[in-house]
């Protein structure tokens, strides 16, 4: 493993008469950038391995007989370099190369989507020949070639820079796009039997320097000079990717990755890039709705809707519950947390889809902290992943894990019943049955060299480890605490990695029963006592507790903000029954969902594109974003709806702007002590895992796909077309026993119903386990999950559908 923390030796060289000292191994093109000299290039990209494919970055090196490509030449002591700015020799070489590239390149700039932001256009003007000597007909291809539902290829524009193929192979690990043929016939293409289905395909269009690869969702929609650009932060997962939102006439036209080397570098996933169609979709909720005496939802003025909501909450008294979602901004989450305790007087508040009381200790410990970072991932010697499928849950983290493995030699250890995306880079797999992860983690914490995983314990003993615990790990008894204990025992860094956009912000804001902002407890509230007028005397109900109480008629009102429990809760049948039973259901959100259809009052909220705010990613990094477009209809910001609802209940929270909320929330959401130092490690309890019944013999582990039927992918048809087919992933032994082969249609049967899926036989799933998509990936899965016992897996049976060949 390379030592990336050791100080680098430096060399001193001269470029265009200016002296510069750089670390040994620095490329000439990078050294020139430090002096403010931009050498023309096409194939070079700072995050891709150098290849010298385009030959555009030629420079003259004193003492050498030929020009050198600055993107592949390392600086040496005493080197004297002259670029096109001071060397006629280098300038002639660059001009000749441009002339060569333009021999067959079409002069269709006015209709090319890259026109106006094209490096070839710019460099031809700055460094190219004034006139063309080409008299023959240019090469032509059939155009465009749809290499996926989202990416179109115009082959005649390609300059063979290999940026797209290098990104796919080196960064994403998806070698579906490649250079075929040789010489004058060489071209970018895809394999006939392997279509280009990648979660990161939009990046190849962004880094293509000439418009050979373009996004179908933006193609011919606008020109760069028609757009206004707004910096933003992605709201599709907890990665925290920085975005550039381009807007034309009040509508979002495209989203691009915005450079932030500390977070997403220069990349983002396709869900974050193309999943914005819902913002202006006709189905957006644009005005308040109130159910009338005939049971019909009718549009209503804001004052009337807020009055009805306040009336129902006042009548409910303490018999009220607040269920939040992970999409809320930091400001919204804090406002709702205070509103529940300070105005409604209830601690029945939660944002989790699969709540477990035993995970609260670890969540309190990480609340308000900035602990493990992406940089820590890259520097780690050993990375331990438990309950985490990074590519499906936090895609940019998956890219950083790949980079740590590929570039820095990190050893990755996956613990659990399935390897998932970790199969790309895992050095060790500690195979466990679903629900038994805690025992494996505790065994590793003992660092015992004996036993079946002694080699892993020996690997961990060397130090430099990072433990990443996925949100799903909390479903397995004692497993999240065992992962934290492993990290603390090793002196390693630890991170809880949730799936949803601002779950970390929700934890920091105290959207958990018995937990106040910054992880504080009601018994020791610290500065929260100075701001809030009343604090909960006892911990309230979590999401499951609230739904069960509502189903029994013990809660008379539920306030659901930015969540869809009927779709997303681990037991959809319970959620549907509870919301149908509760006296008054108030739902605040963006889009029509299964939950809004049951609501008595619907309050329209603005999206992140339509407001200012901040999100906290899985690192604990709080990132502000600005407004890109105007709100749809009469929608208002969540914190402001909460403020007005409080006023209707006779409480003044003292806020007029989101900055007022932020100023109040910031010191309270920050923890006094970082990391696991304040975690009270409780000894594991006796929580046996319930065995599957005989008629449902397999343990179904639910992992939602990144791209599925989620509400915020409304209108993103092309994106959904590139998503992975929901499947039932089986161990080879289990599949053989059931007579199932890959691509067979199978019936997955659970306690609440069944669904039809495609089978996938794999060697990265433990025996007795089947990996299933959730209801967010396939609506029919709600029937399988409904009625399932609360546990780390869903008991299921998988049967081949006869007649399927």
Structural notes for this entry:
The chain has a seven-stranded mixed β-sheet, sandwiched between helices. Strands 28-32-29-31-30-33 form a six-stranded mixed β-barrel. 55% of the residues are buried. The protein folds into five domains: 10-101, Ubiquitin-like (UB roll), CATH 3.10.20; 139-280, 2-Layer Sandwich (Alpha-Beta Plaits), CATH 3.30.70.20; 296-351 and 507-671, Rossmann fold (3-Layer(aba) Sandwich); 363-503, Dimethylsulfoxide Reductase, domain 2 (3-Layer(aba) Sandwich), CATH 3.40.228.10; 698-800, Barwin-like endoglucanases, CATH 2.40.40. Helix 18 packs across helix 20 (572-581). With 805 residues, it is an alpha/beta fold. Helix content is 26%, strand content 19%. The longest helix has 15 residues, at 302-316. The protein contains 25 helices and 33 strands.
